[in-house]
Amino acid sequence: MSGFLHRRELLQAGCSGYLGLTLPGLMARQASASSVSAPARSVVLVFLTGGGSHIDTFDPKPDSSEIKGEFSPIGTRVTGVRFTELLPKLADRADRFAIVRSMSHNDNRHLSGTHNTLTGEPQIFRGNSNEDKELNRDDSPSYGSAVAHLSPPVDGIPGQVTLPNPLIEGNLTWPGQHAGFLGPKYDPLQVIGGSGETSFQLHGMQLPDGLSVQRVATRHKLLQALNNSEKDPDRWAEHQSFNEHQKVAYTMLTSSRLVDAMRIEDESQATRDDYGDHGMGKTLLLARRLVEAEVPVIQCNMGTVQTWDNHEGIFGKLKDRLLPQLDQSLSALLDDLQRTGLLDETLVIAVGEFGRTPRISRLRPDAAVGRDHWAWAYSALFAGAGVRGGQLIGATDRHGKYTITPPFHPNDLGATVYHSLGIDPASTVHDRQGRPLPLNRGTVMSELFS
User: Fold this and answer.
1) What are the start-end ranges of the H helices in 135-278?
2) Where are the domains of the chain?
3) Per-residue DSSP letters for 55-114?
4) Above 80 in pLDDT, residue 254?
5) What is the topology classification, in CATH, of domain 7-449?
6) Which single residue of 156, 222, 240, 359 has CA 20 to 30 Å from 75?
7) pLDDT tens, position by position, 128-139
8) Residue 280: in which H helix or E strand, if any?
């Protein structure tokens, strides 16, 4: 199991016991930045973990009774484009974003499919079991980790913030959530939510009980003095990496921009109501505040590990909770970003690791119907940062089973993320053996910007 980042490490990676911090230690280093134009300061990745149904959201198939499901399509602000009836707010804003209906790959596995979506690269094959596909330091880096490595942010801002929970189920930790072979100093900052959606509380940036920022500053000065007085050159060398991690953690903790962004309670009640009093709403409200703080990548997990993995009871789950909450919170985010002028410099993406089968099935004779995994055709939403709104890109066949236009791969999504942030997708990075690798092998989805 060596090489894995286990759940405790994921939550406390790179932390300083001397400072009493619970922050990932993100090390910034100077590296050559790409000359690619950068229309975006931030990317908000709204991740439908488990794989949302394209047929029951952005690619309805009303003419086929065995495919259609329980929902009817509705018109949108874009002539000829229809969404499911459970997305009325997004339908009314369809002129602000593009829908790609031809996302496609051939990996129906949650873990490796998630890795591809969250890093823009397929996971290295290590075996067929779920344990073989668990989070590993040989994985590719998350988007914000690569940004922190190649074009480090300043003023204590991490390359990526992930919220409101890590993707962990049982003994399995999903891949794609850290810096992979780039090392723990580039890991994202993980913000942890409350125990339930209705009692959502952000505490990933809090100090332990009994500590204040001033007290941490005093400890930091004392630690510096102790380190400077170290006479043993070998011991001094051993401390350097650890001290750099402490320095970054301290800078992040005391960064007013980052700390202030976490205070969603400062928002008006009207704004909080717009987003919704639920986990998705509070997550995307915090995402907007992190955009204002200029965090390059904000990954928003829309639920726990397999919230959208509805093999049974799919229509009730989508109708009663998932789609109304997504519709409300994502619409509020787009409204807020447009109102403040930030949509022009923020790329918003909503996507899962795959879609769901057109065929409706039952796990058991007495179970409510559901849809299974389907990677060969699914949909994604793109908005902001130069994306031309009102577009419908790509198409699937009449069953929503396969693309009938050239497909877009998760690698292409990754290339688009990097391009939007001013990072050349073909930038060279080095794995743990020091071998040079291209950061990404996809193609920028230029159709979004045409």
Assistant:
1) 143-150, 213-228, 233-253, 256-261, 269-275
2) 7-449
3) TTTTS--TT-HHHH-S--EEE-SSTT-EEETT-HHHHTTGGGEEEEEEE--S---HHHHH
4) no
5) Alkaline Phosphatase, subunit A (3.40.720)
6) 359
7) 999 999 999 999
8) helix 279-292
